[in-house]
Amino acid sequence: MAKKSRTGGGTPATVALERAGVPFTVHAYTHDPSTGLSYGAEAARALGAALGLDPAEVEPRVFKTLVAEVDGALTVAVVPVSATLDLKALASAAGGKRATMADPAAAERTTGYVRGGISPLGQRKALPTVLDASASAFETVFVSAGKRGLEVELAPAALLKLTSGSTAPIARRQSSIAGRA
User: Residue 80: enclosing H or E segment and its boundaries?
Assistant: First the structure.
């Protein structure tokens, strides 16, 4: 992986990475507002193009950050962009009984980020975090760096350490997004 990127003021996520001395690489791309809510799919396509890789090669390494409520407590789930969150599995992994998706406004207010740019790192209020177990298959993964059009690449172990997170199989696989428009 490339050496640590210095981002000046950066986002809270990149500032947290710099403070921790964790190796990471920032990848920026131009966010297309017409993408709608497919921020993760957009990131996977853009990263594939920027890195000169087939989108199908980079897609499994691109993760989205979702905020859910587990027994009423906000919890972060980090899953591949080509998968959906298994709420029952998240509840179990977080030691709860029931999980639902959090209200988007509550997720934005609590994390300090906007939807489509929520990072598991540098959140306004640190939330319990569960990373899908599939991340351990990769040397590095990509997660939001705190704004739309900005991803950070880092080792899954570093992500877990900085979020005090855990891993569990919390994703349900879907078909590849690489070929989707």
Answer: strand 73-80
> What's the predicted TM-score (pTM) here?
0.87
Count CB neighbours of 49 within 10 A: 13
Calculate the alpha carbon distances from 179 to 54, 73, 82, 86 in Å: 10, 36, 11, 23
At residue 138, what is the residue type?
A: F
Interval 132-141: pLDDT, tens: 999 999 999 9
Q: Which two tokens stand for residue 60?
A: 């499994």
In tens, the pLDDT along 113-157 reads 998 899 999 999 999 999 999 999 999 999 999 998 899 999 999
* Number of residues assigned to the chain: 181
Angle, helices 156-163 vs 12-20, to 10°: value is 100
Cβ atoms 172, 66 nearer than 8 A: no
Q: What is the DSSP letter of 6?
A: P
Whether the Cβ atoms of residue 167 and residue 132 lie closer than 8 Å to each other: yes
Give φ, ψ of 133 to 5 degrees: -60, -25
* Terminal Cα-to-Cα distance of the chain (whole angstroms): 29
- Residue 46 to residue 27: CA distance in whole angstroms: 9
- List the one residue out of 75, 49, 20 whose CA is nearest residue 151: 49
